[in-house]
Amino acid sequence: MASLTMVEAIRDALAYEMERDERVMVLGLDVGRLGGVFRATEGLLERFGPDRVVDMPLAEGAIVGSSLGLALSGLVPVPEIQFLGFTHQAFHQIGPQLARYRFRSRGRYHCQVTIRAPFGGGMRTPEFHPDAIEAQFVQTPGIKVVCPSTPAEARGLLLSAIRDPDPVLFIEPQRLYRRGREEVPEGDVTLPFGRLRVARPGSDLTLIAWGAAVELCLRAAQRLEEEGISAGVLDLRTLVPLDVAGLVSEVSRTGRAVVVHEAPLSAGFGAEIVATLQEECFYSLDAPIARVAASDIPYPTGPLEAWYLPTVERVVEAARHTATR
After folding, report:
1. DSSP, res 141
2. What is d(CA 195, CA 249) in angstroms, rounded to the nearest whole number?
3. Under DSSP, is residue 171 helix (H, G, I), strand (E, B) or coil?
4. What is the spatial order of strands in the sheet that 53-55 belongs to?
5. Cα-flanking dihedrals φ and ψ of residue 180, to 5°?
6. Domains of the chain, with CATH numbers?
7. Active site (catalytic) residues
8. Which helix (H) or strand (E) holds 238?
9. pTM of the model as a whole
10. How far apart are CA 237 and CA 149, in angstroms?
11. pLDDT tens-digit map of 95-129
């Protein structure tokens, strides 16, 4: 075990896979000499050389398009897009090309590519940098969507992502990069896709989240406990594949649920969770499922983040209302 922050765990996973498999390489804007905008790739250039750690131009479409070609040639690229909001500039390569190649080739070719991209607010970054647009990729068949919320999850899920034969979008909550440390297993320890984590047990209602919203829900659950409400917290970990059985089991047990995410409310992934639970465990529900999300407006400037993003107070209010209906 090593005590690591999330960004250190990500760096450790990259180095471990590059050491284990000589086909694995890293590419992206500033990933080499600078070590990445958040220093997630720091030291990899010196350790593995310029043929496996490649600085790319400011052209997200070229970064992903190059990764597609590298994967088809037998390599295992791990491209970094500096922020998830910048993937808009590469969607023509991610959706119509990378995600569909196995289908287009009738299974002859797969694309073993893991796209890393930080996202989420709380850092007062300029526009496009904090955008939570993960739902757009959930609607892109052929690509898996993974989102850790702890250092141990980041390492274990990233190892699984790099080894997965199909494309994976690995989104990293930037405000958790250095939020705290935890003991992270060393060596070849992976985490499976499609299996959620019960971050906190509870009996009165279930808070459902991913990424930085998990930490937010844990703080809200602590506040609710002081009011006599037992709130469990589910960490989805992977949006695609989604652990439907785990969701249904937990929500059926409590009968009440609140979904929390940083993306705008309308058509966010929370809506898919609500629809799934309504279809799969309707008769176990004791109250309508609530959602706490960002507003349906463009991401505001940094000083207005507190009015835009979900807060502990908003989660507590929604949970309190759901628990007493």
Report:
1. T
2. 12
3. strand
4. 53-55, 24-28, 76-80, 114-119, 168-173, 144-146, 238-240
5. -170, 175
6. 2-184 (3.40.50.970), 197-323 (3.40.50.920)
7. 129
8. strand 238-240
9. 0.96
10. 7
11. 999 999 999 999 999 999 999 999 999 888 888 89
